[in-house]
Design goal:
350 residues; seven-stranded parallel beta sheet; two-stranded parallel sheet; 12 helices; single chain; alpha/beta; Rossmann fold
């Protein structure tokens, strides 16, 4: 076929939005999104439910030109760390069944996984984590998904790859599960109440190393894996390529948010912010902000990412060795995304 056609599954989600956007800006791809509901400005789109195998196969059969698939869907989950293995595996199995049965030019499946592959949600792990590190004790639906794909691909003409980002950050108004918007809302409430921007995580989390993944960098990496033959049937970490400590970054964030930086004070954000919606409503009214607090900040997520008192760091050596050169300065990314949320009237000005 003269031009490959990329299907982005879970295309309206946090990990896939920029993949869809970047692929559409690339003249080398025809691009289709897939989710249960078509967004208002979705473009070429398939509406299908991954839990309905027959319906999914029927939907894909209408697009036999599809050659590549990026899979970025997840079953509903909270911040407990452990996610539904059976549901996540079944959805991917339904997709593979449909692709193999209805797509005559199917060439490659890419799975967007993440740092939970290494058990970061369970406690300390070996760092910097490498793609061939031993698995932690299950459950972990990433393991089941990759094992399923490896078994299905054996002897087939199509190939697979997987990316493992860590805490994907993006300017995504309305998506509360985001580090920048959550910290920005917390800082704005601190400023409104005249209190310092204390670090509410565990004492040990203040000094350890952390890393994140810019969503645009993840999109760059995914499209690279789809095209690079050296990536076939392999997984790659995909992070910004640097690291930070909250003890260094916190004053920088406080300055950008226009609030005194405060000090480490271990607190439950979920409990601390439970009664703060009226404070946000005052801020929202004064500055003409677009969204209620529940669509800006996830306090359960804050309690998760601020309380890791161990290094969270993955090696980018495998991707570099295979030719990937992308990187992002995380401090500059935080600064840029703060301004992006202000421009979108999600966070208030300083």
């Amino acid at each position: 076929m003269s031009m490959p056609t990329l299907l982005v599954v879970g295309a309206s989600g946090a990990a896939a939005t920029r993949v869809l956007e970047r692929a559409r800006a690339d003249e080398g791809w025809r691009v289709i999104g897939l989710s249960r509901r078509r967004p208002a400005d979705g473009g070429d789109w398939i509406e299908a439910d991954l839990t309905d195998g027959d319906g999914l196969a029927q939907a894909l059969a209408a697009r036999p030109d599809i050659t590549h698939i990026v899979y970025a869907s997840r079953a509903p989950h909270g911040e407990t760390g452990v996610e539904d293995v059976a549901a996540n595996t079944a959805m991917l199995r339904n997709l593979l069944d449909a692709a193999e049965a209805t797509l005559p030019h199917f060439a490659h499946l890419h799975m967007i996984h993440g740092g939970k592959w290494y058990g970061l949600h369970l406690g300390p792990f070996r760092t910097p984590a490498r793609e061939d590190d031993p698995r932690h004790m299950p459950p972990n639906f990433y393991y089941n998904q990759q094992d399923l794909v490896v078994a299905r691909q054996a002897g087939k003409a199509w190939s697979w790859s997987a990316s493992r980002p860590n805490f994907v950050l993006d300017i995504a108004p309305g998506r509360a599960r985001n580090i920048v918007s959550t910290l920005g809302a917390y800082a704005a409430i601190c400023r409104e109440l005249g209190v310092p921007f204390d670090f509410p995580g565990k004492a040990g989390a203040w000094h350890v190393l952390h890393e994140v993944t810019d969503a645009a960098l993840l999109a760059q990496g995914v499209l690279w894996m789809l095209r690079e033959p050296r990536c076939a049937n392999r997984a790659f970490n995909m992070t910004n390529g640097d690291a930070f400590r909250w003890c260094d970054l916190w004053a920088f964030l406080a300055d950008r948010f226009g609030v005194p930086p405060g000090r480490p004070r271990p607190l439950s954000m979920r409990a601390l912010m439970a009664d703060k919606a009226p404070v946000w409503e005052r801020i929202q009214a004064r500055h003409g902000l677009a969204l209620p607090l529940g669509q800006v900040a996830s306090w359960d997520f804050a309690d998760f990412f601020l309380n890791m008192d161990y290094d969270v760091l993955c090696s980018m050596t495998a991707a570099r060795s295979a030719g990937f050169t992308g990187f992002v300065d995380s401090w500059a990314m935080f600064d840029r995304q703060i301004e992006g949320y202000r421009s979108a009237r999600v966070l208030p000005p300083t």
